Amino acid sequence: MTRTASPDDNSASAGQLKRGVLGTGGLVFMVVAAAAPLTVMAGVAPLGLMIGGVGAPLAYLAAGAVLIIFAVAFTRMTRYVRGGGAFYAYIAKGLGRGWGLAAALLALVAYNTLQIGVYGLFAAQTGATLADVFGVNVPWPAIALVALGLVLVIGWMGIDVGAKVLGVLLVLESGILVLLAAGILTRGGASGVDLASFSPSAAFTPGMGGVLAFAFAAFMGFESTALYRRETRDPERTIPRATYFAVGFMALFYSFIVWTVVIGFGSDKVVGAASENVAGLFFAATETYVGPWAATLMRVLVISSVYASQIAFHNAITRYTHSLAQDGVLPAWIGRVHPRYGSPYRASVVQTVLAMVVIIGFALAGADPVTGLLLWVNTPGVIGIVVLQALTAVSCAVYFLRRNRVASTPAALTAAVTSAVLLAVATYVLISNVGLLTNAPAGVNVVLVAIVPATLLVGGVFAVWLRSRRPETYARVGEGAELPTTQEVAA
């Protein structure tokens, strides 16, 4: 006799994702680790200071404020979305299945490019550290492929293991930044503590548009709280809490850390210091205010920060893949869950193979791991995620106005409309300043940006085909129906 698993079955042996293994803390670790705070600060914030001046800390607060507004509508809609496909499920619910499928394809492309591109950064940082500390030179593709295997292992072992690993790594990378900030403030910085970074004149410098592009990129992955719906305890409460906490923490933390670095070099000299030493600004500040040992430790923790980001994005990708397999859009075998670990292990293998192909392709082409693999591959992902955020905000507004007025509240509807406008502006700012992200020729930038609308178009065409040829599958889009259990498949 065929046994049908209960939706609340917490057993991995049921052939479903583990139930109730993530609380608010674990969910926050997942999404904040995806953003890689130490990498964002040490690797990108100096460029923001060079371009936007001392007002750079304000850009992180502004981006955080926009995303908090977005989160009001996003989390209000959470209780009405059954599927675990985050953007895909939300857009399908509000704008229809066609837009949902287009969003699903863009999400897969965006998350994969974000995750795969960062292997270039991991390889470059690890290679430089091995050479500086141990005098060992290892080819970057070898480092990237080893990291690929390590990410697969954590993803295979289940979300609870991943959350624990990410929790430890996140505490370590945040800790070294707090240590830097404490060292600067206790010693009064280079010329005293001031609030020049938060003055009106600092907010409207010509380069702030470019800094906003970096600031929005620094929050990548926060919306993935909704991807873990099935693995979260009390998702209607846990997902909103984790989303608000993650965005609020990142906005305040990023702004505070960048401000302390401004104080460390002096608000009148930090732009010059950043221009002269973009890559080493944070390490120089750490060596000055904490000690050489801390600067060395920070270099090591940058590597662990990137690795944590890889794990988090890998988990997000496999949940998207699992959700699409549940809805029948992808083959069911891709969405199968490990009978012991409760992880979508086949989706993990597929994503790992895809990443391996891209890494080997760039290696054979002789590309640089940072200017090639990282910047070129990552950029469509960053733009794609912001576009998806804007579409989700529009979807929330449509859902509240046309599909479920009972779900609507004045705050949620206002937040949906406001965030849709602000995220549309953010998309424009990001595309206008894409050259700052890629450091590539104009022709290359056009191609990288065009990947996003082209992906949406392909997804839309696929939706039309699916509606015509497989209407029963099309009807399931965004609904999040469970895959058959292992026992049902055997029966």
Automatic annotation (TrEMBL):
Record membrane topology: Multi-pass membrane protein
Top-level taxon of origin: Bacteria
Main location per the UniProt record: membrane
InterPro entries per the UniProt record, alphabetical: AA-permease/SLC12A_dom (IPR004841), APC_superfamily (IPR050367)
Residues of the Amino acid permease/ SLC12A domain: 27-469
Spans through the membrane: 21-45, 57-77, 98-122, 142-159, 166-186, 198-222, 243-266, 278-302, 349-367, 373-400, 412-431, 443-466
Record's subcellular location: Membrane
Stored Gene3D superfamilies: Amino acid/polyamine transporter I
UniProt keyword terms in alphabetical order: Membrane, Transmembrane, Transmembrane helix
The protein's name: APC family permease
Organism the protein comes from: Lentzea indica
